[in-house]
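Why does residue order matter? Because the sequence determines the fold. Keep that principle in mind as you read this record.
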Amino acid sequence: MKLKLSDQMSDMEMSSHIQSSDPCVLIEGPSWGNAEFYGKWLLAAAQAETFWKEACKDSDFEKQVERVSIAYLPDFGIAASVMLMQLGEYRTTFVLDLHSEDVTISL
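Structure:
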């Protein structure tokens, strides 16, 4: 069942589980339906993924990010796609909870 925007919870209700002391990132996109922005966003994510993979070939860099890589292997393409899906649901902003253990994005 598809919900209309008016049927959804308010931003305040959805983000109430995030405490003011929690580290978060506010993601603000363009007005809904801006295909040029979406295309550039995905191309930038693809480029970041290429840079990440190339950097990981460097043993010094790999040592520096080793602790991060044990718990989480970044995939910039998946992350960018998930974020675009959030923006594509008639929203222009969302909050990314940095303490979240999964890819859940809080609205």
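The longest strand covers residues 24-28.
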